[in-house]
Amino acid sequence: MPRAERVCKTIIIMQKLLDLKAKTAILLYLLIDLFCVGAGMGVPIFCILFGFPLGWYITGRVTATALLPRAAYIKILKVSSWAAAYTFLLMLMLWGVQIPHIFDPSFDFRNFGHPFILFEPRASFIGWLVLMIVISPFLQLLTTIFSSFVTLTKIEAFEN
To answer: What residues make up the domain containing 81?
Structure first.
């Protein structure tokens, strides 16, 4: 298949994605993010990486409505925050059930299966939970916003 045909098909697919109804797009995001959590076996590395195409998609949707730049920035931040909040809720449901173990003196932290990122097993366990529940959704927020603004920069460069 010639390169021009592949590019045309890719553009058509991208346009179909951008033309999805809002409810369909939200449902699709919820399912893909849930799949990313499962594919990472509870470690949201794929959710963080999914922030890159998500940022492109959010920017495409926001710029299609031709908002003023300040309003577009605010909308991008809001939608990115909602996406990260969903990942936060997934992580809280998945890893939050382990929080009571912090206060259990008989819990065996060494055999829990988390990496010993700190020198003491209990501290490593707490650090692991903070990393999974709080920091990972924040990293997803950062990748989404970064990708959005790279896309905005490309759009502005193309228009000028």
So the answer is: 3-159
C-alpha 151/C-alpha 19 separation (Å) is 18
If one counts the domains in the chain, the total is 1
Residue type, 17: L
Q: Position 155: which residue type?
A: I
φ, ψ of residue 73 to 5 degrees: the values are: -60, -45
pLDDT tens digits along 96-114: 999 999 998 888 888 887 7
Mapped onto helix, strand or coil, the DSSP state of residue 20 is coil
DSSP letter, residue 160: -
3-state SS string for 44-111 = CHHHHHHHHHHHHHHHHHHHHCCCCHHHHHHHHHHHHHHHHHHHHHHHHHHHHHHHHHHHCCCCCCCC
Q: Which residues are CB-contacts of 3 (< 8 A; sequence separation ≥ 6)?
A: none
pTM assigned to the model: 0.87
Q: Tokens 């959010």 — which residue?
A: 58
What is the SS3 assignment for 67?
A: coil
Question: Which structure tokens are listed for 7?
Answer: 């590019």
pLDDT per position as a tens digit, 14-31: 788 888 898 999 999 999
| Model confidence pLDDT, tens digit, residues 79-96 | 999 999 999 999 999 999
